[in-house]
């Protein structure tokens, strides 16, 4: 039915007339048309690569500079500042972190607590509960 509605509207019939002929609500037809348009649009779009993306050689140069003996104990932000003072620009600080992350060279440096797994207590019954008369002394009543 919905394809008939779309065919009628494509042929020039008004939306109101097509919904009257097919018995479909206009909101349903509009929603279906929006979904098919979005799916067609998504099929034609590809993730765009940025024009200023670093080449593999440039990424290798950044990684080499980050792992050099000169900057081994500095953060990428400190290295960025030193290189800028010398008049050299490799990439941004965030790109430096991105290159380090690609090579698994960035880790969490805070001391995070690693708690051992705790066993849940388990109640084990060995038998029925003892009767009152067996373990406790008899209760005396006053006449």
Bulk shape? flat
Distance between the first and last residues' Cα: 92 Å
SS elements, strand count: 0
Low-confidence stretches: none
Radius of gyration: 37 Å
Largest sheet: number of strands, sense, barrel closure: none
Number of helices: 7
The SSE order reads HHHHHHH
Mean pLDDT: 82
Strand-residue proportion = under 5%
Output the structural class: mainly alpha
Can you give the helix content as a percent range? 40-55%
What do these coordinates show?
- The protein is an all-alpha fold and 143 residues long.
- Among the domains are: 2-44, no CATH class; 56-102, no CATH class.
- The protein is 50% helix and 0% strand.
- The chain has 7 helices and no strands.
- The chain has helices at residues 2-11, 15-22, 26-44, 56-66, 76-85, 93-102, 132-135.
- Helix 1 runs antiparallel to helix 2.
- It is flat, with a radius of gyration of 37 Å.
- The model has no long low-confidence stretch (mean pLDDT 82).
SSE blueprint:
Layout (H helix, E strand, L loop, with lengths): L1 H10 L3 H8 L3 H19 L11 H11 L9 H10 L7 H10 L29 H4 L8
Helix pairs in contact: 1-2
Protein name: Transposase
Short précis:
This protein has 143 residues and is mainly α. Helix content is 50%, strand content 0%. The termini are far apart.
Summary keywords:
7 helices, 143 residues
